[in-house]
Task: structure prediction
Amino acid sequence: MEGQIRTPILSVLGHIDHGKTTLLDNIRGSAVAAKEAGRVTQHIGATEIPIDAIKKICAPLRTDWTEIEVPGLLFIDTPGHSAFASLRKRGSALADIAVLVVDVMEGFQPQTYESLSILRLLKTPFVIALNKIDRIKGWQSSKKPFILNYKDQPEFARNELDTKIYELVGDLYDKGYSTDRYDRIDDFAKTVGIVPICAQTGEGIADLLLVLIGLSQKYFENTLLLHVDAAGVGTILEKKEERGLGTTIDVILYDGKVSQGDTIVVGCMDAEPIVTKVKALLKPRALQEIRVEQRFARVKTVTASTGVKIVAQNIETALSGSRVRVVERKDDLERVIAELKSEIADMKLDTCPEGITIKADTMGSLEALALELEGEGITEIKKAEVGSISKRDVMDATTIKDPYLAVILGFNVDVLPAAKEMALQSQIPIFVSDVIYRVIEDYKHWLDEEKERERREKSERLTMPGMIRIMPGCVFRQSKPAIFGVEVMCGKIKTGVSLIKADGANIGIVHEIQDKGENMDNAAEGMQVAISMRKPSIGRQINESDVLYVNVHEEEKEQLSGLLSADEDELVETVIAIKQKRKSV
Result:
């Protein structure tokens, strides 16, 4: 039937350990318990909860379903914002709606903000599942709707939850979002709903499903229109080796249909799209975990929305996150190939000759990594590719002149042995993690340490500016050597530096610095110390209350750039002006 509404596709995102997997498991489990009302179907990479099962779960909250045409909800089983970023259709998110899971006690964390950035990038509507409300002091959680359980809680527990929600509302307001608890919202098009839940006990699952169904029906019925008999279009979740089958691709089909024997065009990085035929379509057997080997049932045809494993030849270089298109007529083949090539070209990131190398497991992950780097002010990227970190990547990094950019960042990828060996030899740092913010954190930490090390080395090598005042009443010896107390007014002084007076006259070198009888290499601004100098005599070349300057060399001025405070920069200019004035006299 033309114009049928397809099942909305949902994805679950959030910070690590905030309960994404537990939530998916509970939704699945709740639906299985309601299976007599509608069979739960396990798809490749997704779980479909039919509308009859949702009606049963939500029965305490809603009895009138006459307006609802949505056939159910399809949850993508790949939690995590990086996977979400990879799942595309025509440049937007594959998921129609996202569920952003937030721990009620911990609030927004680095990965939550990463998820929010990607939701904004892909313009994806979302609902917040405020998880672990059972950890609110005095809260009695049970497997029932939140809105009904809320009334039975002690007042102090309700107040604490409300406070946590207000904090979250404020946090999201700062990010440009209007949010509120779902039952207080009149217009979900303008306000993001917060649904308090406990994924462990199942509290609030009914509320969450009801909000998701309502959103799907009200705001997406036009975009959910499906042409059942049209050529199938889907997105590759991942590429897998299956025993006895060879390379397979797990696909979420979001429009049309695909059948065994169909010609398909598959996206591929840095090469022509793959044209091949569907050898087999596989679905998991009823309620089997998809990771269990050889538990697939062969099907002849599948229709959107669904997850399916496609077996075909020559798909070893298929690109996760790219599209799969069914070609019904030979006349359409060239057009479809051109469209896929154009899409993949659009997915590639802008690069520059001098920059860092980034690698990730999918194009979406790569874009997510680049987006987060940009948020940290790191925009210089020389190379951005999908796949393991190779020897070639290390070789390319060695050509970068800026040592702070001669690095490789990898998200969810392996470092090949030859690359490790070469990186050690050529001293190219590699930062890898399966969490984006950790990759960036590690790089920034290294960057700070390297800059501090370079600053220390430069400050030891270069003449740093300093200004001191001879303290009245603190002359301990007048000459040979002169020993007197000084206050460091700006910058610092160290042993071995030459001092000049305000008229540019050179009065000699600092021989020793002491503080309370202890020898020191240097003294910084604000310190009062004793210094000894062999050349001057107190009362002749210098006097009490005189201001003395470290003799900064003009040729070192450029090298000092970036190492000094504004006051120290100004001090350098003062010293150079004093010396130039003396030269001109």
